[in-house]
Amino acid sequence: MPRTKEACQQIRDESRQHILDETAEVFANKGLANTKISDLAEAAGVSQGLLYRYFTDKDDVFIALLERAINGVILIAQTSIKKKGTPLEKLHWLTEQILQGMSEEPVYFQLFSQAMALSGRVFETIAKLDTVVKILRELITEGQNVGEIAKRDPDQLVILYLGCIYGLAAGKCFSIPWLDEHFPVADAVLQILKP
Amino acid sequence: MPRTKEACQQIRDESRQHILDETAEVFANKGLANTKISDLAEAAGVSQGLLYRYFTDKDDVFIALLERAINGVILIAQTSIKKKGTPLEKLHWLTEQILQGMSEEPVYFQLFSQAMALSGRVFETIAKLDTVVKILRELITEGQNVGEIAKRDPDQLVILYLGCIYGLAAGKCFSIPWLDEHFPVADAVLQILKP
Amino acid sequence: MPRTKEACQQIRDESRQHILDETAEVFANKGLANTKISDLAEAAGVSQGLLYRYFTDKDDVFIALLERAINGVILIAQTSIKKKGTPLEKLHWLTEQILQGMSEEPVYFQLFSQAMALSGRVFETIAKLDTVVKILRELITEGQNVGEIAKRDPDQLVILYLGCIYGLAAGKCFSIPWLDEHFPVADAVLQILKP
Amino acid sequence: MPRTKEACQQIRDESRQHILDETAEVFANKGLANTKISDLAEAAGVSQGLLYRYFTDKDDVFIALLERAINGVILIAQTSIKKKGTPLEKLHWLTEQILQGMSEEPVYFQLFSQAMALSGRVFETIAKLDTVVKILRELITEGQNVGEIAKRDPDQLVILYLGCIYGLAAGKCFSIPWLDEHFPVADAVLQILKP
DNA sequence: CATGAATGAGACTTCATTCAT
DNA sequence: CATGAATGAAGTCTCATTCAT
User: Fold this and answer.
1) Is residue A76 part of a domain?
2) What confidence tens digit (pLDDT) does each residue in A15-34 have?
3) Do A167 and B163 touch (CB under 8 A)?
4) Which domain holds residue C103?
5) Nearest CA to the C1' of F12 belongs to which residue?
């Protein structure tokens, strides 16, 4: 007797998630270009052929992973604005979460640094970060209104903030010995926004 | 009369430099992995075979380019400490030079973002940035002594500063429409070091 | 009460016939080589796995279909000789039947044109057309005896006749716009045999 | 010292022609679908990689070959109308040439029978046969005017004639033992056009 | 020194076939 | 009997690298 439709779908969903789970680290370690389909298959413990039932190609796996990472950041940003406190306090919480994520699960943050190796579809994917940009710009503007944040062009501050975060994440990719023990804390990063 | 050894060597050097000149932009645009030897040869206006007389392989070209970029930054750093003024003023000049370089010749800064796609030789190459790290650490410590700079762990500040710079350079790789007109100025970046 | 052996066998036969029914058009449209097992399964509305209970592989389905087509032609040929009239009249009826079949159900005739893409088993399959060849040769010889048909080598006439029929069937595979409205009638084809 | 541009181009041209020369028979024997790139490379005595410098893929090789075959037929047709004699005599010469070609170099004629296995580009390729169709229609019409050819729809006669030719060519693909010794002559084929 | 035709290893991708459910 | 997820062999294709000229 054949499986039910639902059982099938569940198997498919689980397989897909499983592949993504096991695959993220490979990309983070070897880089997008140096990762072979066979590496992914091996890491996920499935045949190469099966990968193609779930993803159209290598980039497709990577993008799915990138979206996971982006969704994580979006979630943090959206949660931050619901927190109690001043805009700067919200930004502080946001920054802490991100830095903590970088330490505890650097893999997903490292994916961002590989993104530019994507051929063309990158842009539409990272475009999703717009949500985060908007939230940051809003928090910064509010912070400026209450005098917590420097009265500079808010967009410039957003760029500076995100550039800083991105650069720190990228640092995790080059295994620099003394990096971890001197890794910046939220307070230090937020200095960038201070008046 | 045959060419002298020196003349020969000079021709070689010029050819090599020429290849590097024409090649940087290709890497910056297409990325290390998506650049083919044939792309490089075409851009440099030479045959594929000839490339191999000057470089051992694709990575070798890239690394030579990366070293150029690194040497540029080292030069700026070394010059900065000879400038007159307080440590913070020196850092200001340094930062201005770098931001200006990013705007005027972003290509070389974009190469940094591709570096992690290198298989293994990266580390020894970026290790050369140690010189810059040392200079930064020194300027920061001096700045702290005269009270211009926050009394934090100097290494943390170095990481923060370099992360920020790296992140801004990387931003240039994703062609984000509103990036250029809101690109941070030196003052804003240096805020990160303020007490 | 369990099903009887016969009932079981009947269900099997019906399933098999059903698969063949739904499958012929796929082969005719996409060609033997460009048709995937999954195409066949989908067209028949069954799972891929089930196909293997009824056929050993893709070629097996195709050959079964080809035999259907061949049996159809054989039946027409055998019926023709029982018709009343002169040999040429019988050939006329035969030809009419075939041309009509080509128009009404071109699919099966198109299969012939794909047959040569089969690896090796083709020959034993098309060998079954021998029956038709024999009947044609006989009718032609008889026709020659009564002076209705040209006194040429009968085998040459058989080849010519079958080549003509085959070529017309093949024409249906390339969807040529003006083909259908100028498609030859039996009289025109039979001209080939006239004295 | 490098080769001159012309020498290079000549090498390229010769290589391409050489590959086509050696490759036709493989396609004719094994069929389009059953021919592997490695078969082609081996037959031509070149590496697989080199094939891709001259052709985009397997179909591209096949199409180039098909065009050769088509050009051959077009040439015969164009030559025929310049011959002296009545329209039917011209058609006789044309038919003789084709039948002779089928016997002496069946390979190219067999390619036609494989053409339908092409995915989509077939149509534009065989569309080139239009030239031949036009010439045939003209000769037939002229023949009708002088009473040499049956007063039927000329297009129907063209279809019949080409179908017949195609069918005979296809027959060469199935190695039928008694085919060659009973192969039709031009007179027999032209019977189809007789009044 | 300079060229680009030629190679071949190694990646990618497809799909007939099997098998646990 | 029926399913479709999973496999893996076999083919396609790319591109760094070599080499005759």
Assistant:
1) yes
2) 999 999 999 999 999 999 99
3) yes
4) 59-193
5) D37
Tell me how far apart the alpha carbons of residues D22 and A84 are, in angstroms, rounded to a whole number: 79
CA distance B180 to B171: 10
Contact B81, B51 (CB under 8 A): no
Confidence of residue A1 (pLDDT cuts 50, 70, 90): low
Q: Please identify every stretch of chain D with a pLDDT value under 70, giving residue numbers as ranges.
A: 1-2
Which amino acid, one-letter code, is at D58? K
**Of B29-33, B106-110, C90-94, which one has max mean pLDDT?**
C90-94
**Whole-angstrom distance, CA of residue A30 vs CA of residue A36:** 9
Nucleotides on strand E lying under 7 Å from protein C-beta: 1-21
pTM of the complete model = 0.91
Interatomic separation, CA of residue B54 and C1' of nucleotide F15, rounded (Å): 19
Give A-chain residues touching B117 at CB under 8 angstroms.
31-34, 114, 117
CB of A116 within 7 Å of some strand F atom: no
Domain count of the fold of chain A: 1
Min distance D48 CA to chain C CA atoms (Å): 22
pLDDT value for B2: 52
> Which single residue is written with the structure tokens 């159809």?
C72
Question: Is the CB of residue D195 less than 8 Å away from at least one CB of chain C?
Answer: no
Query: C12: pLDDT confidence band, cut at 50, 70 and 90?
Result: confident
In a domain, A103, yes or no: yes
Q: How do residues B136-153 score in pLDDT, each as one tens digit? A: 999 999 999 999 999 999
pLDDT at C8: 80
Q: What is residue D125's three-state secondary structure?
A: helix
Residue A135 falls within a domain, yes or no? yes
For residue C120, pLDDT beyond 80? no
Answer for the pair A154, A162: CB distance below 8 angstroms, yes or no: no
**Do residue A167 and residue B167 have CB atoms under 8 angstroms apart?**
yes
Does the CB of A191 sit below 7 A from strand E? Answer: no
Q: Are C143 and C87 in contact (CB under 8 A)?
A: yes
Query: Looking at the domain assignment, is residue C20 inside a domain?
Result: no
Chain B contact set for A117 (CB, 8 A):
31-34, 114, 117
pLDDT at A99: 97
Q: Mean per-residue pLDDT for B155-165?
A: 97
> b/e string for C137-150 if b means 16 or more Cβ within 10 A?
eebbebbbeeebbb
The Cα–Cα gap between A115 and A109 comes to: 10
For the stretch A99-112, pLDDT in tens is: 999 999 999 999 99
Asked whether residue D3, judged by its CB, lies under 7 Å from any atom of the DNA or RNA strand E, the reply is yes
Q: What is the CATH number of the domain that holds B186?
A: 1.10.357.10
Interface of D with C in 145-164 (CB under 8 A): 150, 152-153, 155-160, 162-164
Question: Does B113 reach chain A within 8 Å, measured CB to CB?
Answer: yes
Would the pLDDT of C11 be above 90?
Answer: no
In this predicted structure, the answer to whether residue B119 has a pLDDT above a threshold of 80 is no
Nearest to C126 among D152, D174, D191 (CB): D174
Q: What is the pLDDT of residue A2?
A: 65
- Cβ of residue D34 closer than 8 Å to a chain C Cβ: yes
CA–CA dist B29, B23 (Å, integer): 10
Asked whether strand E has any atom less than 7 Å from the CB of D36, the reply is: no
DSSP class of residue D185?
P
* C-beta atoms surrounding B160 within 10 Å: 25
- From chain C, pick out residues whose CB is under 8 angstroms from the CB of D186: none
Instruction: Determine, for residues A160 and B168 on separate chains, whether the beta-carbon distance falls below 8 Å.
Output: yes
Q: pLDDT tens, C33-54?
A: 999 999 999 999 999 999 999 9
Residue D124, classified by CB atoms within 10 Å of its CB into exposed (0-12), middle (13-18) or buried (19+), is exposed
Alpha-carbon gap: B4 to the closest alpha carbon of chain A (Å):
44
**Chain D residue with the nearest C-alpha to that of C110:** D116
Asked if strand E contacts A155 at the CB level, meaning under 7 A, the answer is no
